Amino acid sequence: MSQVMFEKFCVPALYVANRAVLALYASGKSTGMIVNSGDSVTHAVPIYEGHTLPHAILKMEMKMLTERGYTFTNTAEREIDRKEKLCYLALYFQEEMNSVVREEPTIDRKLYDIPKGNVVTLGNERFR
């Protein structure tokens, strides 16, 4: 990463830091505990005077809680799921839009289940 920044982008200087330390600095402190919850893992990172204590870092995989029946799905996760499963980049955008206007069956319509048992049919919304 450093080599690319210096050689390709000609940056005069570069500073690489631990994300947890930067989060603590943002609160105006240099010693503390940062709890970082991501989509599949949570880290508890103790920091002393701007340095992480690697031997004391705790990691908890949230996926295990999901397997036990706890769900942590939020609206953003559902939106990402819809986009990844249904959307695509139309190679011939205008042709596909024209076929929608003419109601030709060339557009691959998809059904998507949304919460509360409703089903939505998507046509050109998948690539517009």
From TrEMBL:
Pfam family, one: Actin
Xref: PANTHER family: ACTIN
Name assigned to this protein: Predicted protein
Species the sequence originates in: Naegleria gruberi
